[in-house]
Inverse folding.
């Protein structure tokens, strides 16, 4: 869902540390990426990311989409110290809540969009990436769509 934003960021970076479950597939043949196949659902995820940052850093900009950020954020913010961090939050009700101590994070909250028939739809990948790119460019938090249920 963040493929366009990831490529946009990589095009503006000397080297991109890409951490995802299928990072090597995404980065296949692109030497500007250092792909790491890590799964955010494992206990060692944050430690593995911090070790990779330590070995390959410093990181200037981080684009994160964590489905359970509250459990990982404290450790990741420490190892990404000095980086602009844009955190994508996929929810329509305004949760998860980000602790006040993490106020320096730029957030992109994903909602839904109204349809012409009066219903709602999920955001498309392009809309999600455009929101993330906007936050990377201007450093301002934003909501994409409406925080209203489907």
């Amino acid at each position: 869902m963040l493929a366009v934003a990831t490529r946009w960021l990589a095009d503006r970076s000397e080297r991109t540390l890409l951490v995802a479950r299928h990072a090597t597939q995404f980065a296949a043949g692109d030497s500007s990426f250092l792909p790491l196949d890590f799964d955010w659902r494992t206990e060692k995820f944050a430690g593995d990311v911090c070790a990779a940052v330590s070995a390959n850093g410093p990181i200037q900009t981080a684009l994160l989409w964590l489905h359970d950020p509250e459990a990982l954020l404290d450790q990741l913010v420490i190892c990404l110290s000095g980086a602009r961090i844009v955190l994508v939050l996929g929810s329509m009700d305004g949760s998860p809540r980000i602790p006040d101590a993490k106020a320096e994070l730029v957030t992109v909250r994903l909602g839904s969009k109204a349809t012409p028939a009066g219903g709602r739809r999920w955001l498309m990948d392009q809309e999600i990436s455009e929101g993330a790119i906007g936050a990377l460019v201007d450093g301002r938090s934003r909501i994409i769509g409406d925080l209203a249920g489907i």
Remarks:
- Strands lie at 16-20, 33-37, 61-65, 84-90, 106-110, 112-114, 120-122, 142-144.
- Residues 88 and 108 are 5 Å apart (CA to CA).
- The mean pLDDT is 87.
